[in-house]
Amino acid sequence: MKILILHGPNLNLLGTREPEVYGSMTLNDINEKMIALGKELGADVTCLQSNHEGALIDALHDARTWAAGVVFNPGGYTHTSVALRDAISAIAIPVIEAHLSNVYAREEFRQTSMISAVCKGRVTGFGWRSYELGLRGLLEIVKGG
């Protein structure tokens, strides 16, 4: 089973970007943990990050041809991108929305997600573990659990 972990804008700066909000782990650290967890759970995990909305849309479109599902942290595009919402809706594979910080304890604009309604689930506020919980939940959905 193949899974895409997709990271949006500014997540390439994890570890140095606002560590009091996002933690001290780097994106590479998170990717390594997700790949290892995937192996443990019987999934082949591929990780991808882009700061560009179109590249994220292309990755979602491409994933429908090879992935059983996606764990996606759209970063700031969460609150603004109808295009990402439409891409998720169009690909017909399950997507789990994941966020490192508790968006409900932050600025009001961060509490609105353009994509939640077309995702199978949402995990927020557990730091890097949001990806772990998202991957575990996605695998249960894909396996029919």
Can you tell me about this structure?
The protein is an alpha/beta fold and 145 residues long. The chain has a single domain, classed as Rossmann fold (3-Layer(aba) Sandwich), CATH 3.40.50. Helix content is 38%, strand content 18%. It has 5 helices and 5 strands. The protein has helices spanning 19-22, 27-41, 53-63, 82-91, 129-143, and strands at 2-7, 44-49, 69-73, 95-99, 121-124. Helix 2 (27-41) runs parallel beside helix 5 (129-143) and helix 3 packs parallel to helix 4 (82-91). The longest helix has 15 residues, at 27-41.
Structural class: alpha/beta
SSE order: EHHEHEHEEH
Q: If helices are DSSP runs of H or I spanning 4 or more residues, what is the number of helices?
A: 5
Quaternary structure classification = single chain
| Radius of gyration computed on alpha carbons | 14 Å
Q: How many domains, as an integer? A: 1
What strand order characterises the main sheet? 2-1-3-4-5
**CATH T-level fold name:** Rossmann fold
Distance between the termini: 15 Å
Low-confidence stretches: none
User: How would you characterize the largest beta sheet?
Assistant: 5 strands, parallel
As a percent range, the share of helical residues equals 25-40%
CATH-defined architecture = 3-Layer(aba) Sandwich
Strand proportion, as a percent range, falls in 15-25%
> Class in CATH?
Alpha Beta
CA-based shape:
globular
pLDDT average, as an integer? 93
* CATH-assigned homologous superfamily: Dehydroquinase, class II
